[in-house]
Structures are given as C-alpha cells and as structure tokens.
From TrEMBL:
This is ABC transporter permease. It comes from Actinoplanes auranticolor. The keyword Membrane applies. The chain crosses the membrane at residues 44-64, 84-103, 124-148, 168-192, 199-217, 250-271. Coiled coil: none annotated.
Amino acid sequence: MSTATLSPVAPSVAPAAPSSLRVTQGRVIRSEWIKFWSLRSTTITLATAVALLIGIGLLASSMLNSGAATGPEAGELGPVDASLAGITFAQLAFGTLGVLFMASEYSTGMIRSSLTAVPHRLPVLWGKITVFATVVFVIGLAASAIAFTGGQALIGDGAASWSDAGVARAVIGSAVILSASGILGLALGALLRSTPAAISTLFGAMFLLSGVAQLLLPESWRDNVVQYLPSDAGSAFTSVSQGADALSPWVGLGVFAVYVAAVVAGGAWRLKRSDA
C-alpha cells in the first residue's frame, strides 16, 4: 500500500504591485497637467492675463511717448515701468487661475478621487504647483518680453534696451512674480478650500493691504511697514528704478517668497491633516 507524500504548503504572499501601477511624483504631475488643460477656465484666463499684460503695457508706453504719463499729477513713469504696467492686472488673473486650479476640486468633489488615487496627498499639491508654475512662467516671460519690446518701440526716443542695467531682471522678474502670485492663489485654494474666500483673500493681500496700511498706519511706521507687504515687495523686484523707501530687488524677492512659502506650508498642512 503506497503512502501519499504531502508537499509543504508555501505561505501565502500578497503579490507585489506592478511597477506600472505605482504612484510616482512624475505620474501625478502628468495627471495634473491633463486636469489643468481640461479646465474651461484655463485657456480663457491665460489669454486674459496675456492681453492685460501686453495691452496695458503698450497703452502706457504710448501715453509716455505722448507725454500723458508724466508730470506732477501722474508722477514720473520710466520706459520699463510703462511697458510692464500691466503686471498688476495679470497678477490678479494668474492668481485667480491658481485658486480655480485647486479650489474647484473641492467645489466639485473631484478632490476625493484625486486623494484616493494618491493617498499620501502632498504629491497632488506638489504636482499642481509644478504644472502651474511652469506654464505661467513660460507664458508670463513671453508676454513680458513682448510687452517690453513693443512698448520701447512705441516710446521711441528715450526708450530702454535689453542691455540697460536692471532691464533683464525686470522682464524676467515679472514672469517670476506672476508665477509666484499664481502659486499664492493655488495655496490659498488649498488652505481655504473655497473659491470666493481664496480670491477675496488674494485680492485683499495683493491689492488692498498696502493702501489700507498707508491710510491707517502712523507716518513714522508707514514706510518701514509698507515696503514689506506682498505687493510692494514684489514690485521692488520688477522695478528698474528703486524708490528711497523701497526694498532692494533681491530682498523684495526674498520677502515675497517668504509669503508664498508660508501659505504653501499652510495649504500643505491642511491638505495632509484635514478630510476632503
């Protein structure tokens, strides 16, 4: 009579996830790239920002050529500042787009799907920032260069050139500040999770805070405080001629970067710790 031999049963081991299904930062960035260009607001807002940056710059340059943008009432406006006069309005447009890119996922509920696919959460924020900053910097740099070149052509005599001191920094710096303003809006969207609240906060911080501070602060404090506010710090980096009470260009960039980094850190903390 033969005896059957039982072979030992191997312990069950869960199969390793195939590498093709692994979540990586690169794949998250590709996903965010698709989501960014699938938003209906993306193309419209980008086109609006470019039109504002170039159009207002050319308009201010033509007024400078005719003498309408100088004098004691209007203040002295340099040729570089004139051609880049649209940056303030472009900041609002790019900042609004940054808010929409992040906060719209909360309003539609799509953020739950994003965080289910990327359970560690923070790669979603880093992917959005990478995609947004890249697109805005490239488009902002092209628009700033067109606004400067076209504006100097309109100014004619007394126009600035690319080789003049501070010009390249002002043009490239405009693209940097536009990207940073958009990231600030994106981070506010992650922090506040509400499109109206994030846009209102961005508008107040970038465009109202400086004026309110000048009205309410004592004169002895005013200049020392206002120069460190976001809008004034950013302007210090994009201006060729520095005012007596303005920060130096690189200090201004550093101060602006601190504001952006602080809000990004707050948005990352809430994304990591709070439920969607």
